[in-house]
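Lesson 9: reading folded outputs for more than one chain in a single document. The general rule is that every protein is listed as its sequence immediately followed by its structure tokens, and records are never interleaved. Here is the first one.
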Amino acid sequence: QVQLVESGGGFVQPGGSLRLSCVGSRAIFSSYIMGWYRQAPGKQRELVAAMQKSGPINYADSVKGRFTISRDNAKNTVLLQMNSLKPEDTAVYYCKAVHPLTRVEFWGEGTQVTVSS
């Protein structure tokens, strides 16, 4: 069974920082594309950032310059460093793994991020 477990969400004031972590099984991190998505109330789930095992990184325009995705394949971990947080960043953040060839997807259960004064 493939599992992704997110952590690191919470409540932060505007301008603050949070670091999200996603830990998965070794089978995922050996070859999968890993990404972070978010879903705000009443909105569709959207891509925040995604990266291959080693290579291109994609960011949503709304987070460029503020968020950084990284992965440690040896520790089966993908991180999302979020700086200069804004109220509009409030959402449930999900970790996603995609097989690069079959496109089979796995999702974590999400972690809530709330940015408010």
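And here is the second record, again sequence then tokens.
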Amino acid sequence: QVELVESGGGLVQAGGSVRLSCTISGPTGSAFAFNWHRQAPGREREFVATISWHGDNTNYLDSVRGRFTISKDKTKNTVYLEMNNLKPEDTGVYYCAAEGARPGAYFAWGQGTQVTVSS
């Protein structure tokens, strides 16, 4: 089974940058894409970014487009989320998810990593 482990979160000032990593273990043959989601206190978990595992397609939440960049290194079985010009509203727990061929068919989640942006 696929296991995901996030790392790289922490406390950062507004305007700063953080890079998150999602290390993937197990068989990735059924993975169509890997995503980042986040959950702020008292709010629903929301989609942030996605990248195709077998191609180069990416997509972003409108509010992070132009500030966040999702990328992958298949030799390291790792997906990254580079976050620049961070805002306090980016605060939350960031989760990595493995998505199957059907959109929204997430079959593995990481435990999450906290990102806190201070104003």
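What the second record shows: The chain is about 0% helix and 55% strand.
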